[in-house]
Amino acid sequence: MTTFVPYQPKYSLSQKIRRATTLVSASSRAIWKLLREGKGFAASVEVTDRCNAGCHYCYVYPSTWNQNQRMAGYSQLTKHEQKQPKQHIFGVLKELKESGIVHVTLVGGEPALAPKVLRYAADNFPIVWVVTNGAAKLPYLPTSATIFVSIDGPPDIHNQSRDPGGFFENHQFKNLTGMSAAIVKNINESERGAFVHMTLTPPNIKRFGETIDWLVRDIAKLRGIVVSGTTATSPQDPFAFTLEERQLLKKAIEAKAEQYGWRLFPFNQPKVNQFLFEPEHIIKDFTECPIALRIESLGFDGKSVGKCILRDDSDCSTCVCNMTGLQKAIETIDFPTIVNTIPTLFG
Ligand code: SF4
Ligand code: SF4
Question: Model confidence at 74, in pLDDT bands (50, 70, 90)?
């Protein structure tokens, strides 16, 4: 066994005390909001519609949009029209803050393409998770912000599925090329490192082990790995997990946890995996989903994008999104999950 030791950003004692005080105050405001209004205290916000990747499974863009069109985003609009959504997103965040939201997850498009919005959110919310494809450098952000970089599989799979237009083909880092090289370089050169969020399709389960070995070996500032499976629009979709494939992925995580230790998988502690992969916990529709019930999902125009960021046409019975299992484990006060979630609150 080669025990994995998560990269921990450096905090002085006074910084730790300040951060802990902020988190205690945020938790009490969140509990108060929950008790008073019966509403959740978190929101997921798409901070830009621009993206430098070209994922074929993207739920944000029409599948007919190529990587160039995704990259263009607002700039396809007139100068005046471009200004409106950009200004609007600040208003959306301001309203969320005033309504008592304490935890925002910033998604895109690609959030790194909206650095001013990231900075504004990190200055105004106590807990900010930035979900990025990691290919562009992120701006320096305060300790309220924690970075999650999305990975689809080993470098060849990742480059293929996320960068079909070859935008990053000239990037090189150590023995890596393409988008995966850019990602590893950006994380290793960042000040506080990142968590990796891996989303696997059923055919890629067989490459799970080598993906984990790659990430542990090459990312010096790796803080942990979060594992999800794809969510499809129907059980007949080739990307929909069967019951057997759920079990395969669960076993693959357990095997790697045995090799590196469970700290490698802070959001996939055994209780989370039970909720995520066991047939009796499959969510039939959004009324059973703790994410849909407690987290607002907004587009860059401030309007709801649907029951969750995966949009209304995703089929809940196929959903293998880690956040559903994590939320259930936290709600059942699973001690290992709560303990392993704490480092993600220290960005
Ligand atoms: S990184 Fe996200 S927003 Fe960009 S193309 Fe891929 S799935 Fe879509
Ligand atoms: S698709 Fe997944 S996250 Fe979205 S509402 Fe359904 S179960 Fe919840």
Answer: low
Judge if the beta carbon of residue 55 lies within 6 A of ligand 1: yes
Cα of 132 vs centre of ligand 1, distance in Å, is 9
For the whole model, what pTM was predicted? 0.94
Q: 23: Cβ below 6 Å to ligand 1?
A: no
In three state form, how does the secondary structure of 2-45 look? CCCCCCCCCCCHHHHHHHHHHHHHHHHHHHHHHHHHCCCCEEEE
Token match 């599989």: residue? 153
Tell me the C-alpha distance between 116 and 139, whole Å.
9
Q: What is the mean pLDDT of residues 256-275?
A: 98
Instruction: Determine whether the shortest distance from the Cβ of 289 to ligand 2 is under 6 A.
Output: yes
314 Cβ closer than 6 Å to some ligand 2 atom:
yes
Domain at 13-345: CATH architecture: Alpha-Beta Barrel (3.20)
> Atom 8 in ligand 1: which residue has the minimum CA distance?
58
Question: What average pLDDT does the structure give for the chain?
Answer: 93
Straight-line distance from the first to the last Cα atom of the chain, in angstroms, rounded to the nearest whole number: 28
Interacting residues of 229 by C-beta distance below 8 A, sequence separation 6+: 199, 200, 201, 202, 241, 245, 246, 249, 320
Residue-range domain boundaries for the chain: 13-345
DSSP 304: B
The number of CA neighbours under 13 Å toward the Cβ of 167 is 20
